Amino acid sequence: MAAYFLRRLAQAALILLGVSLITFVLLFVLPADPVRQIAGRSANAETVQNIREQLGLDQPFVVQYGRYLGALLQGDMGRSYLQKTAVADLILARLPATLLLMLGAILCELALGVAMGVVAAMFRGRAIDNGLMTLSFVTVSAPQFVVSLILLYVFAVKLGWFPIGGYGTFAHLVLPAITLGILGSGWYARMLRSSMIDVLRADFIRTARAKGLTQRRVVLRHALPNAILPIIAMIGIDIGVFMGGIVVVESVFGWPGIGQLAFQAIQRIDIPIIMGVTLVSAAAIVLGNLLADIVAPFIDPRIRLR
Amino acid sequence: MADTTGVDRTAPRGAFARLMQRKLALIGLVLIAVVVLGAVFAPLIAPFAPEEQLFDGLTLEGAPMPPGGAFLFGTDLLGRDLFTRILYGAQTSLIIGVVANGLSLLIGTVVGVTAGYFRGWIGGLLMRFTDLMMAFPALLLAICLAAIFEPSLWIVAMVIALVNWVQTARVIYTETTSLAERDFIAAERTLGASTWRILFHHILPHLVPTIIVWGTLGISTTVLLEATLSFLGVGVQPPTPSWGNIIFENQTYFQAAPWLVFLPGAAIILLALAFNLVGDALRDVLDPTQRGRD
Amino acid sequence: MKKWLTSTALVCTLALPVSAQDYTPDPNAKQGGTIIVTYKDDVATLDPAIGYDWQNWSMIKSLYDGLLDYVPGTTTLRPGLAESYEISGDGTVFTFKLRAGVKFHNGREMTAEDVKYSLDRVTNPATVSPGAGFFASIKGYDEVTAGTATSLEGVTVIDPLTVQITLSRPDATFLHVMALNFASVVPNEAVEAAGADFGKMPVGTGAFKLAEWTLGQRLVFERNADYWREGLPYLDSVVFEVGQEPVVALLRLQNGEVDVPGDGIPPAKFAEVMADPAQAARVVVGGQLHTGYITLNTTLPPFDKLEVRKAVNMAINKDRIVQIINGRAVPATQPLPPSMPGYTEGYAGYAYDVEGAMALLAEAGLADGFETELYVMNTDPNPRIAQAIQQDLAAIGVKATIQSLAQANVIEAGGAGTAPMVWSGGMAWIADFPDPSNFYGPILGCSGAAAGGWNWSKFCDAALDAKAAEADAMADPAKATDRLALWSDVYTGVMEQAPWVPVFNEERYTMKSERMGGEDALYVDPVSIPVNYDYVYVK
C-alpha cells in the first residue's frame, strides 16, 4: 500500500512537471508580448526594454523555465505581471470561493442525480423512468453557459428568487452550484439507476423483501447505501470536470474564484497567474483521480471482494 | 467502459435494425437529420443572407427586433435575421463536430492502438503522455491553444481535437491490450502474420463498434466545446455564425432580448442531445455486455 | 525622441492667482455616510507608480496627492501638495513650495525629500513603472533609466518644504505630468517596509486611506481625518465591490444596493433606464477624452496608397456604428476628441460617400476591391462593431476578414505591424492628461511607429513630427494659443494622410443612486475617472 502510494505520488509529480513544461511552452510561443501589456500604451522603447529585463523575459526559454521551476520548488509561484501580487496569494484568496462552488456543485449533482436515479430505478421501464432518463440526457447535453443564462433568466430575473450574480450568501451560491452540478447529475442518475437495478436483484434485497419490508424501506435503507458507493468513488474525478466548468460559470455569475482569475489572465498574458492556476487545477485533478483510485477498493464491494 | 469479451464482428449490421427499434435513438436520428438538412439547404431555406445587416433589422435606438413578422426568430444586435444565422450556425456546428471529432478519434485510435499493442516503452510513454493530458484543465488548454493559433473554423476544430482525443485513447488502449492477449491473435502471430496484418485485419475491425460509439458520443462533446469556446470569444470568428458565438455576441441582452440567447441555446442542446441519444443507443446495441440489461 | 511626452496646455492658468483656481465646495455637502461602488475587473494595484487601469486610476487619486491636481470635474490644473510654484524664464526650472503640515496616512509629515524619493522611485527601472517615460524631460532621467544613477540629477531638495526640478529641455506640459498619478508622493519608509507589496498596502497623503482589501472581492476606503484639504472628504467610507458584471451592478443599483456602477450603464440596460423618467433623471452623461479609430497600416499594400486610405475613410458609416452602440457616442472627424484643447472646430473630415470611395479605389487601380484583415479585441461590443465595419467595406468591394482575438494578441499584431487594420475598441486612446500632444507621439508619431509601438498605422511623417516637436517646445505660456493652433494643424495634416479612420468619440453614461449628492461633473470627472470620490457626498 505504501509503495503503491509512493509510486502514485511520484507519478503525480511527474505529471505536474509535464503540465508545467507544456503550459510554459504554449505561453512562450503565444503570439503576444506580456511586456506590452505591462508597459501600457504610453511606454517608450526604453521602458519596454527595461520591463523585459526586470522580468527576465529577455532570457532564452530554458533559462526562463529553469528559473520558474527553481522558484516553484521553493514554493514560490512568482508574482503576477499586472497585479504585482504573489500568485500564491491571489490563488489562495480566490480558492475558497472556488472550493465552495465545487462543494455546492457536488452536493447538487449528488442530490439531483440520486433522486433521479432512485426514482427511475424504482419505476423501471415505466413512463417516469423513460422521462427521467431522457431528462438525464438533456442535462448532459446542455452547455453550462446556456444553463447558467436560463437559470439566471428564470429564477433571478423573472421570479426574483435568487440574486443575479455575486458572492457572499447562500442564495448567491444556489444558481452557480446548480449550473456546475447539473451536468454531473445526469451521469450520476444513469449510473445510480443501473447500480440500483443490480443491487435490487441481489440476495440480501430479496431477503429484506421476504421479511415483508416495504418497497420504500427496502430501496432507501438497504439498496441505496450499496448502490451509491460506486458513485461516491466518482466524485474525485468530477474535480477535473469542474475545473473546466468554473471558467464559464464563474464568469457568468461573477463568482470570485480562480476560474475568473485564469480567464482574465489569459486575456492579458499574465503568465505567472496562468501557470499558477493551471498547476493548481492539474494538481487538483491528479489528486482527485488519486483519491478516486484509493477510495474505490474500500467502498465498492465488488472491488473489495476480489 | 465495459470490456468487450466476445465482440461479434457482424454486430454493426444487425445493430442498425436494433437501433431503429429504440424510440429515443429514433428521436435522436430525426433531430440530427433535421439539423443536417437545415445546414445543407440553409441557402435555400434562409430568408436572408447570414451576414447581411438589415436596415430595418434594428430600431432607431439600435435595439434588436423581437421574433415575428418578417423575422421569424427576430434579429440580433446588428440587425441580422436570427433564423438565418441559426441555420448557417448548424453548418459550423456540424463541420466542427465531424472534423474535430474525426481528428480526435484518429489521434485517439492511433495512440491507443500503438500503446496497447506494442506496450513496452513506446506504450508506456504514450500512456503517460495521455495521463498528462488528462491532468490538464481542458478548457484552459483550449483557450490557450486558440490564443496561439488565431482561430478560424479549421483551427478551432484542430484545437478541439487536440484537447479531446485523450478519452478515446484510453478506451482504445484498454480494448487493444485485452484483444492483443486473446488466443486468436496469439495464433495469428505464431502463424507468422505480420504486425500490420494483425493490426488491420484483426485488431482494428474489433475496435470498430467502440469507435462508432465514441465517435457519436464525441460529436456531442465537440459541439458543446465549440459552443463554449465561441461563447468565451475564442472560437469561430465573426461574422461566421456559430451557435456559441451568437450567444456570446448577445448575452448581455439576455433580459432585454432573451430570444437571442435561448433560441441558439436550444439548438445547441437539441443537437448535443441527439448525438448523445444515438450514441447511447449504439453503445447498448454494439456492446454485448450491456445487452439485455433493460 | 520623447518629445511627444511634452507639450504645453492650459499654460495660461498659471498666470492666475492660486486662489482663483480652486473649487467652490457644494454648500449642501454633508459629512458622513458610506457608499458602494462596483467594478467588473479586479483592482490590480494601488501603487501609484504602477496602477494604470480604469478602476484604480481614481482610487489612487483619492489615496495619494501629487504636487499638482485638477479642479474637480474639470481639466483645469490647481495646486496640490505644492502650495505655489515658480517657473524660470526659459521654462526649464520649476521650483515648488510645499504645503506645511501635510501628513501621510502613517502620521509622518511630508517633506521635499519625499517628493524627490517618489520621482526617483517612479523612474527607477526596478520599479517597472509604465509611466516612467512621462518624466523623460527631467534632467538625469536617461542616467537613471540606463542604471548608471539611482537618483534624478534634476530634482534637488532646497529645504524641507522646497523642491526644485530642472528639465533637460523646455516642457510646458510638465505641470500636467506632475499631476499624473505616477507623480504621487509616497513615504520612503512605508514603501521599503512593504517591499513588492506596496500596491496592496498603500500609504499616501490622500483624502482616503485603505481600511480593508479582500482580494478579488472588495476594498474599503475610509476617511483620512487628517486630510490637509479642509472639510474633505465628505464620505466616511467608500466600499468597492469588484468582480461585478455591469448588468448585475445596474440591477443592484435599481434595487438600491449600489450607489455608483463604476463601469457605467451597460448597453443591454440602456434603453430600459432611459425609458423610465425616474431613472433617466439619475443618469449622468459626460464627454471623455477618447477616440475610437481604425488604424490603416501605411506600410502594407494597398494601404500604402493614400487613395485607398481615403476610400476606406469614406466607406465607413459612422452613424450606423453609433446606432449599434445605442447612440452613446458622437461620430468623429479627427483624432482629437471635441473636448480636447486643439480640436479643430468645423473640420468635416471624410464624409460617408460610398460612390466617392469606389471612385478613389478605381483611381488607385483597385476597382475590384481587395482582401484584407481587420483585427479586433474579442470583448463585446468590439466584434460587433468590427462586423459593421466589415459590411461597410464590403459595400466598396473590400473583403475584410475579422480576427477577433484576446487584447494581448491584438496589441502584438498591431505593434509588430502585421495587422493591416485594427479597430481600437477596448484598447483605444483615452488621454492621460488634457493636452493635444498626448494623442500624437505614441499613436501617430514616428517614435510610436517602431516595432512594438502603439502607432499601429506605422504612420511616420517627418514634417508633421517636426511640427509636433515645434509645438512641444513652445513652453512660453503667452504662446499657448499659437501652440494649440499648431497642434490643430498637425492633426488636420494627419487627416490629409488618412492613416486612421476616426470613428467615434465615446460618451460616458453612468448613474447614481437616489441618495448621492454633488454636481454631475464629479461622476464623469474627466481626470479622476470615473468618479471623484473626494467630493461626492450622501444627501
The poorly predicted ranges of chain A are: none
Structural class by secondary-structure content of chain C: alpha+beta
Number of helices of chain A: 14
* Average predicted local confidence, pLDDT of chain A: 85
List unreliable stretches of 5+ residues of chain C.
Answer: 1-20
| Average predicted local confidence, pLDDT of chain C | 88
Helix amount of chain C, in percent? 25-40%
Counted beta strands of chain C: 21
Compressed to H and E, one letter per element, the order of chain A equals HHHHHHHHHHHHHH
Q: Which two chains have the most extensive interface, and how many residues on each?
A: A-C, 49 and 57 residues
CA-based shape of chain C: globular
Sketch the major β-sheet of chain A: none
Q: Name the quaternary structure.
A: heterotrimer
- Our measurement of the CA-to-CA distance between the termini of chain C, rounded to an integer number of angstroms, reads 50 Å
* Number of β-strand runs of chain A: 0
Radius of gyration of chain A: 24 Å
- Tell me the number of helical segments of chain C per DSSP (H or I, 4 or more residues long): 16
| Residue share in β-strands of chain A | under 5%
* Beta content of chain C: 15-25%
| Radius of gyration of chain C from CA coordinates | 23 Å
What does this structure look like?
The complex is a heterotrimer of chains A (306), B (294) and C (539). Chain A has 306 residues and is mainly alpha-helical. Chain A has 14 helices and no strands. Chain A has helices at residues 2-29, 34-39, 45-54, 61-73, 87-122, 127-141, 144-158, 170-201, 203-210, 215-227, 229-253, 258-267, 271-299, 301-305. The longest helix of chain A is centred in the middle third of the chain and has 36 residues, at 87-122. Chain A is elongated and about 85 Å long. Mean pLDDT of chain B is 84; it is low at 1-11 and 290-294. In chain B, 70% of the residues lie in helices and 0% in strands. Chain B is an all-alpha fold and 294 residues long. Chain C is an alpha+beta fold and 539 residues long. Chain C has helices at residues 54-63, 112-123, 141-146, 174-179, 188-194, 246-254, 267-275, 277-280, 306-315, 318-324, 354-363, 382-395, 407-416, 441-444, 462-473, 480-497, and strands at 34-38, 68-70, 77-79, 82-87, 93-98, 155-159, 162-166, 208-214, 218-223, 237-241, 260-261, 283-287, 290-296, 329-331, 371-377, 399-405, 421-423, 429-430, 500-511, 516-517, 537-538. In chain C, strands 12, 13, 14, 15, 16, 17, 18 and 19 form an eight-stranded mixed sheet that branches. Chains in contact: A-B, A-C, B-C.
